[in-house]
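Many introductory courses stop at the sequence. We go one step further.
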Amino acid sequence: MRAENLWLTYEENELEELEKVCGNYRSFLDAGKTERECVAEIIRQAEAKGYRDLYTAEHLVPGDKVYAAWMEKSIVLFRLGTDSLEKGMNILGAHIDSPRLDLKQNPLYEDSGFAYFDTHYYGGIKKYQWVTVPLAVHGVIVRRDGSKEVVSIGEKDTDPVFAVTDLLVHLSSRQMEKKASEVVDGENLDILIGSRPLKGEEKDAAAAQIMKLLEETYHIEKEDLMSAELEVVPAGRARECGLDRSMIMSYGQDDRICAYTSLAAMLDTEDTARTTCCILVDKEEIGSTGATGMNSRFFENAVAELYDRAGGYSELKLRRALANSAMISSDVCAAYDPLYGEVFDKKSSCFFGKGPVLNKHTGSRGKRGANDANAEYIAKLRRVFDENKVSFQMAELGKIDAGGGGTIAYIVAEYGMEVIDGGVAILCMHAPWEISSKADVYEAYRGYRAFLQNMI
């Protein structure tokens, strides 16, 4: 089903539900600006819907709902179906990390009376977009004894904010001759955090003042910053965008827009024959690496734990369960932007207000690095969406050789399961503030729920 524009098709009751879903989505964005914060919020919502910790569960039966978190940065939810796990699962997968600035492990320094935090950018960013915007610091600091301090500075109206400085236009004639990729150097993305010297300190007095404040507020020593994960993100709440309030503008919509709609669909799905699953992972923006990325054994191990508690586990049965599963790898796609139409193939682009986007393949330059979904699987998805009156669109990410991108789809495809990239179209992807359509958020939720309930 392909509507000209979803706003023209919704009835009054659907518009009310749309606003409810989008309001909850904005709250999710505000609550989860880091992977750890997202996992904590996901657990809160899941437990409110009757989910319990897989690792503390014993015997599981059809209808049971469990979650498994890993290192507080990735999480998977399962709802056991009446069919054997060997017949496979219906899986929604997305990532909850987003481009940002990370503090280095020895971040605090002073230069010419200014105190700074030294940073290293994370994921693909246009570095010049991160200067002179209000920034917040989120994360954790872990002391030598293992005790932990959770940090969030810059979100409350009474909080201070931070900034990366830029060269004034009056002195920037040579800077403005540089290529965009070189206008701001990565080593100059350090955030300004103070300028008031501490009395009695002859050297690095501004940095000493910052350390004094950190000690008083968080009871930490300077060395504790070595065992910290502190992320610098845009300060501020998710907002409605446009005079008609038809859009949402926020940090981190890649890929928390798909994470939230997948989560909401999972939590609202009732008992099904096939086991349903929602996996939300870390590290996609840097290649899905590490112990909390999709390339780790976390997902496979969690399914093994599920199988063990449901009874009848064997290595062969686990392999069959994974191979017989169907998945939507939920990640964003670039919405057609008429101001930059030269990089899009309009015939194969996705548009605001026309529902979730299915990408048969991603990758770049000859589909390199892509999962190329089977035609038979796409036909099944079309049937599910059409029978449930879900609007959707098929697209590619820009013109051939204009660039490209990828998701976690190619990783889970290694199990032999059917998987396709399917997400939400957004503007300004990877910018500090990204823009989405409320209609697409709602329709993605509807589409993911239809997939979980009806894919066989």
